[in-house]
Amino acid sequence: xxxxxxxxxxxxxxxxxxxxxxxxxxxxxxxxxxxxxxxxxxxxxxxxxxxxxxxxxxxxxxxxxxxxxxxxxxxxxxxxxxxxxxxxxxxxxxxxxxxxxxxxxxxxxxxxxxxxxxxxxxxxxxxxxx
Length: 130
Description:
The protein has one domain (2-123). The chain contains 2 helices and 10 strands. The protein has helices spanning 30-47, 79-91, and strands at 2-9, 15-24, 27-29, 52-53, 62-65, 68-71, 95-99, 102-104, 110-112, 118-123. The strands form 3 sheets. Strands 2-1-10-7-8 form a 5-stranded mixed sheet, with no helix packed on it. Strands 4-6-5 form a 3-stranded antiparallel sheet, with no helix packed on it. The chain starts with a strand and ends in a 7-residue tail after the last strand.
């Protein structure tokens, strides 16, 4: 069994947030890892819904804040819908994932968590006027 560390960083490499999930298979696809990450962050949110959601992708009907997303009213979020949104964002270069020191580029790419247990997620933001 493996333990993976999910870490969000800014494009400049600054840390944003980090957490671990243990008891995982030694090898998982990027798709599975994104789904796992989204399921975990949605479960944390759903245990204590609020107006603020700090996750990989924006939930439906939420606005963007400097440190996450603002929901019009607290509600339960569907992790499967969020995972689908995250997969689309990955394919559209909305964020990228580093496994160890390399960028993974395909949802079906397998990551060996015994070799690369640290996954770094870097969200890309659109530039104003561009």
